[in-house]
Specification:
The structure holds 2 protein chains of 2 kinds. Chain A is an alpha+beta fold. Chain A has helices at about 10-15, 20-30, 45-55, 90-105, 120-125, 130-140, 170-185, 190-210, 240-245, 255-260, 280-290, 340-355, and strands at about 5, 35, 40-45, 60-65, 75-80, 80-85, 85-90, 110-115, 140-145, 160-165, 215-220, 230-235, 295-300, 300-305, 315-320, 325-335. Chain A is globular and about 75 Å long. Chain B is of the alpha/beta class. Chain B contains 3 helices and 6 strands. In chain B, the strands form 2 sheets. A 4-stranded parallel sheet of chain B has the order 1-3-5-6. A two-stranded parallel sheet of chain B has the order 2-4. In chain B, β5, α3 and β6 (about 85-90) form a beta-alpha-beta unit. In chain B, α2 crosses α3 (about 70-80). The radius of gyration of chain B is 11 Å and the shape is globular. Classes of the chains: A alpha+beta, B alpha/beta. At the A-B interface, α7, α8 and α11 of A face β2, α1, β4, α2 and α3 of B.
């Protein structure tokens, strides 16, 4: 049988139950089976959806959000089975981490099973085109009950731009052209639109040039006394430490130092003569000049840069996913954007690196 | 002095490769010195700007006049010329 079916023994082993217990569950929950050459098989999706309570027991609910320390792999209740019903709340960062995690599995031709229900988290994911984008990766390896999410209420006022794939170099520019006018109509300033374009341009260029992979992008807002934009972007490329260390100058750095060093100006995987490597320093300078924050992660290492009230703090975070590649989430506050020099930004990073 | 309307290259000017192409186009089509007019341009990334401003400055005795820049484009240009002896005049 193919990968979409379990034998009786496989189900008993997976759920850690006896054959009589399985038989009682089959009767109780009406689990259908097929018989082939006298052998009984169960559809994996049926088993996961109807009997998974037995596997997971009492699992804590998870908040997959940018300020939290949770990896999306905590949803994996059995190999390849992600229980989205455990999500209590999710935002753009959590969604892109989940997308990157699942995409990396599906791209490696591993079957992925998603357990869904009519919950706000699943509605959120449906509303940002999460399942459609995942299906585009390779629908053959994705299994979930789409019927459950049919006719869900769509539209989330916080989402300005749902999940978008930036599949080729420069694609972000046409996306931005389409949203500048809309943001201005909604009262966002020219400065915040300009900062958004600069930031997204640098990050998308990093993904498509250095990581050489497509990336996912979302734009959301925060409701409050001031206007905020949250830009979230992620890819499943080789990751910052790996690419930076292809430059001999950085090859002896440990991965975490390489990750942080990449935010200094003129640090790049490319040869130094190209004078490259400004993009990530720009990103932090914009955030610092704006009193904002940036969360970044690469290859399982997470970091949080907080410039609110001149905190200039850098703290380690749990990576949102163990998948390779890089993810960023950055808030932009519709307020002042002061000029910050490369030297100022480098000094903050050098001070941090010296303490490691 | 010729004025280059930067909007012809897009409203989001990011990406080093695009900056390089833009620089070649400016050098081909306009005789130097030129000023750069950013009217209607929303964003300028420093890697794009590197490729345009630094070679132009070299050809113009390290002086460039830029027009109609928003605050953020100004910040980007300041970062591009940081640590370099280039004189930028912002005319709004």
């Amino acid at each position: 049988m193919n990968d979409q079916y379990f034998t009786i023994n496989e189900v008993c082993n997976l759920l850690n139950i006896s054959r009589p217990t399985l038989d009682s569950y089959r009767k109780k929950y009406g689990i259908e089976n097929i018989t082939l050459k006298g052998k009984v098989y169960f559809k994996k999706t049926d088993i996961f959806e109807q009997l998974s309570f037995a596997m997971v027991g009492v699992m804590p609910e998870l908040d997959l959000a940018v300020l939290n320390d949770v990896a999306v792999e905590e949803l994996e209740v059995a190999p390849g089975v992600f229980d989205l019903r455990l999500i209590r709340s999710i935002d753009a960062f959590g969604s892109i981490c989940l997308m990157c995690c699942l995409k990396s599995r599906i791209s490696a031709r591993q079957h992925v099973y998603l357990l869904t229900e009519k919950s706000s988290a699943c509605f959120y994911l449906q509303g940002i085109n999460f399942f459609q984008e995942l299906k585009r990766v390779n629908g053959e390896y994705l299994h979930y009950n789409a019927e459950i999410l049919r006719d869900v209420p769509s539209g989330n006022p916080e989402i300005i731009l749902p999940l978008h794939l930036i599949g080729y170099k420069g694609r972000e520019k046409s996306i931005l052209d389409g949203i500048y006018a809309s943001l201005r109509v909604q009262g966002y300033s020219e400065d915040i639109c300009s900062s958004l374009g600069w930031t997204l341009g640098e990050l998308a260029d990093n993904a498509t040039t250095h990581a050489n992979v497509p990336c996912y992008f979302m734009l959301s807002s925060l409701v409050g006394p001031r206007k905020f934009l949250i830009l979230t972007i992620g890819d499943i490329g080789l990751g910052i430490p790996f690419t930076l260390k292809t430059n001999d100058r950085y090859k002896n750095l440990d991965d975490f130092k390489a990750f942080i060093s990449a935010f200094k100006s003129n640090v790049s995987s490319w040869e130094d003569i190209y004078d490259r490597g400004k993009g990530l320093n720009d990103l932090l300078a914009i955030a610092k000049g704006n009193g904002a924050w940036v969360r970044a992660e690469s290859n399982g290492m997470g970091i949080f840069f907080d410039f609110n009230n001149n905190a200039d703090s850098i703290n380690v975070k749990t990576a949102g996913t163990k998948a390779t590649g890089t993810r960023y989430s950055m808030v932009l506050i519709d307020a002042e954007f002061d000029h910050v020099t490369k030297r100022e930004m480098n000094n903050i990073l050098i001070n941090y690196l010296e303490k490691l | 002095m010729n004025t280059v309307k930067m909007i012809q290259f897009g409203s989001t000017l990011t990406d080093r490769a695009d900056g390089k192409k833009t620089s070649i186009s400016i050098m081909d089509k306009y005789s130097q010195p030129v000023s750069l007019d950013f009217a209607d341009v929303v964003s300028l990334g420093s890697s794009f700007g590197d490729e345009v401003i630094l070679p132009l400055a070299e050809k113009q005795n390290q002086k460039i006049i830029v027009l109609n820049t928003n605050n953020i484009i100004k910040n980007s240009i300041r970062r591009i010329v940081e640590d370099r002896s280039i004189e930028i005049s912002f005319l709004d």
